[in-house]
From TrEMBL:
Protein name: YgjP-like metallopeptidase domain-containing protein
Superkingdom of origin organism: Bacteria
Source species: Streptomyces axinellae
CDD domains cross-referenced by the UniProt entry: M48_yhfN_like (cd07344)
Domain YgjP-like metallopeptidase: 40-251
InterPro entries: UTP_pyrophosphatase-like (IPR053136), YgjP-like_metallopeptidase (IPR002725)
Transmembrane regions: none
UniProt cross-references to Gene3D superfamilies, sorted A to Z: Metalloproteases ('zincins'), catalytic domain
């Protein structure tokens, strides 16, 4: 009899068949088992949070799964390492030399200089921040957010008219600011003027196709409120891949920097 007192997951019995939701441990790694009748082969997934899922066909023995997991050790290690490199770094930011900030889907390194008159600038691909401003987290954050609002408004200004023309809606006024948990919001005016679109400053960290999606999404609301069939028909006419972009935005949105700072 093996001493199993410290193991939550005793080794499988030779004839044990995997069951849905079961946890198996191989070489110190825990795998959550997902059984599918449609599968023929075993498969592994490294989830976003680093947890491991082992996908197995029905009737697969625990022994076979364990040997598969053991044989995939290299693959898992590579995946985990890759995921750590790409781990969302953008949830919390410091205003320190070398910190990465995103603009239009690209990474820009932060460089600290003495420039109190122009606290934030984009210079040769680097985001340049005044050193004294950076030293005060509140001031640094305000300067950065102001910069996103400013450059974002300029960028969006060049896109709104073409999109409005394409969608056959009057061009609204656009503003960029912090609008909380939404990427964009459209407010009609009482006198049937085109109204006002507000975009979240954080949107300008996304790649341009996603920003275009946010803009077009709000412009479509000039014609149709709500997200019913008519709304999507209008939006898809302008952006056929709207559903894919929405899914991408939902995913990226979970990890984008929203102004949180590390003190
Ligand atoms: Zn909407």
């Amino acid at each position: 009899m093996q001493p199993l007192a410290f193991s939550a997951d005793p080794p499988s019995q030779p004839d044990e068949v995997l069951s849905e939701g079961q946890i198996i441990t191989v070489d110190g790694r825990r795998f959550t088992v997902r059984v599918s009748g449609r599968r023929k082969r075993l498969g592994l997934t490294v989830e976003r949070d680093g947890s491991l899922t082992l996908r197995a066909p029905e009737g697969c023995s625990a022994e076979r799964a364990e040997s598969f997991a053991r044989g995939s050790r290299r693959w898992i290690e590579g995946k985990v390492r890759l995921q750590e490199q790409h781990r969302p770094r953008n949830m919390v930011r410091r205003f320190a030399e070398g910190e990465i900030f995103r603009y239009l889907g690209r990474d820009h390194r932060l460089s600290l200089v003495d420039a109190p008159a122009a606290p934030v600038r984009m210079l040769a691909g680097e985001l340049v921040l005044d050193r004294t401003t950076a030293a005060d987290t509140t001031a640094g954050r305000r300067a950065l957010l102001d910069w996103y609002c400013r450059v974002g408004l300029r960028w969006a200004g060049g896109r709104t008219q073409p999109w409005a023309g394409r969608m056959g809606v009057p061009e609204p006024a656009v503003e960029v600011r912090d609008i909380g948990r939404r990427w964009g919001v459209y407010r009609p005016l009482a006198d049937s003027a085109p109204g006002r679109v507000a975009l979240h400053w954080a949107v300008f960290q996304f790649p341009p196709p996603l920003i275009d999606y946010v803009i077009a999404h709000e412009l479509a609301h000039i014609k149709v409120s709500g997200h019913g069939t008519d709304y999507w028909r209008l939006l898809r006419r302008a952006i056929p891949e709207a559903s894919d972009l929405k899914a991408e935005l939902d995913e990226m949105g979970k990890y984008v920097w929203l102004g949180d700072t590390e003190s």
